[in-house]
Each structure stands twice: as C-alpha cells, then as structure tokens.
Design goal:
heterodimer, A: alpha/beta, three-stranded mixed β-sheet, 10% strand, B: alpha/beta, three-stranded parallel β-sheet, 14% strand
C-alpha cells in the first residue's frame, strides 16, 4: 500500500486542479460490482479552504519532462518527486470508496517518459479499476497533451469525464510560459472527444459503453498573463458553444514559483469570483459575452456582472414580477435561476406580492430597484441612489470576506461543485 | 382551541386530520408542548377507516402528496403535524396539487419541512463514514437530526451491492442492515465492534489526504462549516 509521504507529495501536486465535481454521470452498478455515479454529484467532505472533497485527487507522478514556468512540478524545480503504481492507486481508491470517503477518482499526472507512455499508464490504472476491481464509481481522467488520439479514445470509453487544461487564455501566453504545450495539442483532442460524444448520441450507443458520459471540462490560470476578462470570457463562450464543454474552471494565479516571466503578486480572488459569476450568466442566464464585457475590458470590481449590466440598461427596468417572461426575470439582479423558476410556478396560483418574494429567497435588497409587484415600485427612483445602494451592499459583502481571510488582501470563495 | 395529541405514527396523524378538519385546533405529537389557557385536549387513537378516507381524498388531487407528507412527518420539529395539517387543508380547499405554489405560507412552511429531510439525506450520503470490521462487514454509526436511516439504505444498497453493511442511528437505536441481497431495519441500541487490521491504516491515509489537499493560502473556514456543520464532525475521522 502507498505510504503517507508519497500520498502527501502527489496530493500536494494535484490540489491546484480546481475541478472536483462528481456530477453529470448516471453510471449504474453491475452484478458483483462496486459503486455507481450519482447524477447530481455528492460532496464527501470539506477542507478548511471551503472547497469540497468529492474525488480522490491525485497525480500518478510529479516527475515531469516539461518546464512550464508557472508549475511547481516543472523539470527545473527542486521539489520532492514521487510516483505511484496503478495497483497502489486501485487499492487506495477501493479502500476509500468502501468507507464512503470519496465519490471516485480524479487521476492526473506529470508527463514522464513520453506523453504516450504516461497516457498508457493512466489508462492501465483505470482499466484495472473497471475490469479487475469492477469499480463503477466516478472517474475523472486528465488528458495528456501530445498523446496519441487512439489512446485518448480508449480512455474516453473508461472514464466518466475527461479534461485537457487550456492552462493560459491565449496562444501567445502559452508559447511564453508553457512552450512544450501548443494550442493544437490541447484543442485537437478536445475536438475529437466532442466528436466521439456526438457519434455515440447519434448512434444510440449503450450508456455503459458511451464515451465520457459526464462530458469534458478545462481549466485556465487567471492573472499570470496579460489577457483581459473580455478575452477570457470570449474564449470561455467559444469553448461552451463550439466544444460543448460542461465547465470552464478558473484558477487565480498564486505566486508559488519565482520567475521573471511571471508577476510577483497574485491575481486576487475577487477577479476569479467575478469571472465565475460571468460564466454562470453565460451558461444559465442567457447572456452573451458582448453584453457582459467588451473584448478589451475587465469586469467591474464594485458590482457583480449582472448588476453592472442592469445599471447600464436601466431603460429596460422595472419589470412586473407577475407578467415578465422567464428570460426577463433571469436578468433581474437578485433573482437567481431557482427563484425565477419559483416565480413562474407560483404565478399560476395567484398574484405574487412583495412579501412573498422574500420567502422565495429573492435578494430584495438588490431586486427591489428593478421590479414592480402588482404595479407598485419599492426601490429608489434615481440612478445615482440605486448605484449607491448596490455599492454599499456589495461593500458589506467584501468587508465580511476580508475579516475572514487572514493572509490574502481580498479573497472570495471559489465556486466549485455544480455542473 | 382544541389540542389533538397523536402518538407519532402517520395513521394517528391522519386520524387527527379527519377529526380536527373543521375545528380551530392544533395537532401535535409532542406531549411537552406549552398549552394555552382554557384549551381542550384530545388524545387521538389511530383509526384505519378515517386514515384511509383522508388519504383517498388526497390522492384524487395530488398523487404524490401522501409520500411528501410521510417524508415531512419524519422531521424532528414539534410543529410538523400542524404544518402538514395546514398543507392538507390547503390541498382540499384548492382541489389541486399545490406543491409549486411557492407564495402560499402553508406551502413555504411545508416545503421547508420537506427540504430538511431530503437535504439531510443528501448530505449524509456524503458524510456517512464506514469502518471495516474484522468479519468484513462495514459499520457506519451516526446520529442524524431526523429519522432517515431507511431513506439512506437504498442508495448504499445500490452502491455497495456485493458488500455487507450496517448503518446505525445510535441516538434513536435504529439500524439498517444489508446482507448483500436485501436490506431491513431493526431496533438495535448498542453494537460491539471489532475493527479489521487495515482500518487504522486507511483512516490515517485519509487524514493525510485531507490535510494535503487543502490550499493553505486561501482559508475559508466559514464556508467549510456552512457546508459541513460541526454537529456531524464527531463521526468524521478527518475532523476528530
């Protein structure tokens, strides 16, 4: 069995992968098998940084042949190196899974030997888990750039989800900071994975044999390179619409590595938080990137992206809660996707008044400036007043956060978990 | 005002609903409740016929109401019977399913009650911890706020199909037992456990993992406690 020291090294190296979600797959258990996947995902524990533990997140090895500037495991770094065998990983996963510590495995690796050899070892591990141990729990497998397409396809039939990390939001930054990875080595396998998913859907392949039922995700580092939020979100939107990705994760840059190509200070967690808010607007609220932020601009620090959009478009408000269509309700600050749905449902039983909105968990402090209830308006009349109210509310959120974070200046929780 | 005291079973609750329907009343199973001055009290005895008539009436307006109410009645709140009673009255008055009428106070209260059960069940699917015993059976002690052991059993029976396991609610003395084929619940107040050789090794690896996966540079303890309330920690090896 694996010893505590190697587990520590390989976990420390894996923890900067943000994704930990275990949702999106409906894999069922087989006769005599162990485990299944829960489509909504299940969190098994939470660490003091507020993130959930759902999967056993581990590297196969941190002994890398690449020399990416931002990475703590790059070839030229002086760190402890460790490797774990497929058998050891299987034993650990099964042992943890039977005790209900985890929902499955998130397996990744540094590139050792060649990309093909690394990918093969990852596949061997997952194959051993699925065949020999009859494991039907959730498996998220990291794709290795430059690995052969056939290997990627084989991996896709075994895993529930795969991810190739874009790492940096533009080709130039990638060239500068991760010269061994190219745009093509990341985008081509993503495209072929998407094609495999489409093929399986069209040909009605049995669920058990289908490629990555939970789709693919990616991750990029924010603030290590000069791209604006506008560029980052434009890329994000393209990934969702053209590549069919389930999630794009952002990881705020933390200076763990010293390099003169990298900024000396971190990007701050507020920027990451705002990007996630904008990401949600694109996926669940029917926004286009162009409405949220211009190509060369950054998101507003003071207001969340939805508030900022609403303040620029005050001529569209206020809207009447009892008649506005779903698409309009979704655009009101303070009304989330769940409460918009509740409002639509509740309207069928009678008119909604201002008091009952609070019971539907609508954030009235924000929403009241943008809605009317049975024709009555409860907010401030003048735009400047509205701005002040929203600003004050946003500040109280920030100061609360500040007192909680002992080290970083401004820090806001990373939103993780949901699909 | 009339207080109807039922014995905690669903049958006696539905009987009370039948008896109390048109009266100004309060239904409860909590015998220590503070009574108001000049009130009348009635002890309800389960009556199969009255119970059947209430359920039949419910079914014609909302097919899922019975199951929802049975789930809500598991709640540990002293108000649960009264909240369910008002919900039932609301269904009969409107003669239709009202589950999504989120602006009616009776529905808001009822959904809150229901959510506490479904929410805790979901949470414990993640937070329950098994220990391997010497004979290979997995044993999970826990003490949930609500009586949800039989709601958890189907999930774990599907997941650990080929294993034998026990989920033990030690406060209520209720255990769910699965033998690799089917599951039952039974009253078990105390269990003596002899752990397997591997148990402590896996437990310390898990603790090591929990420590290493945390990003120290971005502490957010409040968020951790919000998602994983402290009252559940006593059964989590990583938090002991």
């Amino acid at each position: 069995m694996i010893d505590a020291e190697r587990l520590e090294i390989l976990t420390e190296s894996a923890k900067y992968d943000v994704s930990c979600s275990s949702s999106g797959s409906k894999r069922v258990n087989t006769a005599g098998g162990l485990g299944n996947a829960s489509v909504g995902g299940i969190c098994h524990s939470f660490t003091p940084d507020g993130r959930c533990i759902s999967l056993l997140k581990i590297l196969m090895s941190n002994d890398c042949i690449y020399d990416c500037e931002y990475c703590p495991n790059r070839r030229s770094a002086d760190v402890r190196r460790a490797t774990i065998t497929p058998r050891e990983i299987c034993e650990l996963v099964i042992g943890f899974y039977k005790r209900n510590y985890i929902e499955g495995l998130f397996l990744s690796s540094a590139v050792f030997g060649t990309p093909d050899k690394t990918m093969e070892l990852l596949i061997n591990t997952v194959e051993m888990l699925r065949r020999e141990y009859r494991f039907n729990g959730y498996i998220h497998l990291k794709g290795i750039p430059h690995a052969d397409e056939l290997l990627i396809m084989k991996a896709a039939r075994l895993a529930d989800r795969m991810s190739f990390n874009i790492e940096l939001p533009s080709e130039n930054s990638l060239k500068l900071l991760a010269p061994q990875k190219t745009k093509q080595s990341l985008l081509l396998p993503m495209k072929s994975l998407q094609n495999a998913i489409t093929y399986d859907k069209l040909n009605k392949v049995r669920r058990r044999d289908a490629a990555i039922p939970a789709g693919q995700t990616t991750q990029m580092i924010i603030g290590a390179s000069p791209e604006t939020d506008g560029q980052i979100l434009k890329l994000t939107e393209a990934l969702y619409r053209n590549m069919g990705l389930r999630r794009v994760y952002y990881s705020s840059y933390i200076p763990v590595v010293r390099s003169n190509l990298l900024p000396a200070v971190g990007a701050g967690l507020l920027r990451e938080h705002r990007l996630y808010q904008a990401d949600w607007l694109i996926r669940f609220y029917g926004f286009d990137v162009n409405e949220i932020v211009g190509e060369g601009e950054n998101l507003s620090q003071e207001y969340d992206p939805k508030c900022a959009w609403a303040l620029r478009n005050m001529h569209l408000f206020p809207v009447e809660i009892n008649t506005a269509p779903l698409a309009t309700l979704l655009r009101v600050p303070g009304i989330g996707a769940k409460s918009a749905y509740k409002i639509i449902e509740a309207r069928k039983y009678g008119k909604i008044d201002f008091e009952s909105l609070a019971k539907m968990r609508v954030v009235l402090k924000r929403a009241k400036h943008f809605i009317t209830c049975k024709g009555k308006f409860y907010g401030c009349d003048r735009l400047s007043q509205v701005k002040n109210c929203l600003l004050l509310e946003g500040k109280s959120e920030l100061t609360e956060q500040l007192s909680m974070f002992s080290e970083k200046s401004v820090a806001i929780s990373a939103l993780t978990g949901e699909v | 005002m009339i207080y109807y005291f039922c014995d905690g079973t669903p049958e006696s609750f539905f009987t009370a609903v039948f008896d109390a329907y048109n009266k100004e009343c309060f239904i409860t199973s909590d015998s220590e409740i503070q009574l108001s001055l000049g009130c009348e009290t009635v002890r309800v005895l389960a009556d199969a016929e009255k119970c059947r008539r209430v359920l039949q009436g419910l079914k014609q307006y909302d097919r899922n109401a019975e199951e929802d109410i049975l789930t809500a009645l598991r709640n540990c709140s002293a108000q649960k019977e009264q909240v369910c009673f008002l919900y039932i009255k609301c269904i009969f008055e409107r003669k239709t399913s009202i589950k999504n009428a989120y602006s009616l106070p009776a529905v808001v209260d009822f959904n809150d009650l229901l959510y506490k059960i479904t929410g805790e069940t979901h949470r414990l699917k993640g937070l329950l911890r098994f220990k391997e015993t010497a004979n290979g059976t997995f044993y999970a002690p826990y003490s949930p706020d609500n009586n949800i052991t039989d709601l958890l059993m189907p999930h774990f029976a599907a997941r650990f199909k080929a294993e034998k396991f026990v989920i033990h609610d030690i406060e209520r003395g209720i255990a769910g037992l699965y033998n690799g084929e089917y599951w039952i619940t039974a009253h078990i107040s105390k269990a003596e456990i002899c752990l397997s050789e591997n148990e402590s090794a896996f437990e310390s690896l898990w603790k090591e993992y929990y420590k290493s996966v945390n990003v120290k540079e971005r502490p957010h303890e409040k968020q951790m406690k919000r998602s994983m309330p402290v009252r559940y920690w006593k059964f989590l090896p990583e938090k002991i």
